[in-house]
Amino acid sequence: MNDEVAERVRRAIYDTFAGQGQAPSRRQIQDLARADEAQVKKAVAELAAQRQLVLDQSGDVVMAHPFTTLNLGFSVLGERTLWFGGCAWDSFAIPHLVNDEPSVLIASTCPACARPLAWTVTRSGPPQGPEVAHFLVPMARAWDDVIYTCSHQRLFCSEHCVQAWLAGTGQARGYVMDLATLWQLASGWYSGRLDSPYQRKDPPTAAGYFRSVGLQGPFWGLDD
What's the domain count of the chain? Predict the structure, then answer.
């Protein structure tokens, strides 16, 4: 596959998600990327193999992080566009990536008590609040089932609600962080994804990024 074609396909998908809150159709991708059906099919498959896209069983795009077509518990409302957030991390990342939205309203519900939760998130600093994010799946296993992983990166009212949810579901505790750490994690993770060319972070770069925002331990693929 010609790298230029694959990059045009990637940008067609990401730009449409960013601007419209939804994935483009295959016909739209062909038009935007100036590619034929076979080229688009091959490029989409290669981008999925590189973990830049997530496809359903029909080969259609369902996730282009931080964007998704799936309702995984978060809505992200800008002045012009409404997105589904793929998880707590991705929801907080969208305002950092889409520069023409100065702020977004992120809405969710606590998985433990079903209380409505909402935050105005900007690029200037983290929102205030006692809520915490719980990430269930360690990063080394995140792509074993990435939709499952994303659907279990949720925001809770408090540590107490995290413990109640763990007790009720029988799950083991993952990684808990406050809103400030979540905002820091999301702020630069997808930097450059709407530019060309884009280079996805390799494991050493990702590990360095996690350390830079204060994350540590084996959950993130880091030494204790």
Answer: 2
Q: Which of 36, 64, 92 is the last residue of a domain?
A: 64
The residues pairing with 178 across neighbouring beta strands, listed in sequence order, are 132
Dihedral class, residue 196 (left if φ above 0, else alpha if ψ from -120 to 50, else beta): beta
pLDDT band at 136 (very low <50, low <70, confident <90, very high): very high
What does the pLDDT look like over 204-218, one tens digit per residue? 999 999 999 999 999
CA atoms of 200 and 206, how far apart (whole Å): 9
Q: Residue 27: which H helix or E strand, with range? A: helix 26-33
Report whether 80 contacts 101 (CB < 8 A): yes
Does the pTM surpass 0.90? The reply is yes
Beta bridge partners of 193: none
**Position 76 in a domain:** yes
Is residue 9 located within the same domain as residue 108? no
Q: Could you give the CA distance from residue 30 to residue 40 in angstroms, rounded to a whole number? A: 6
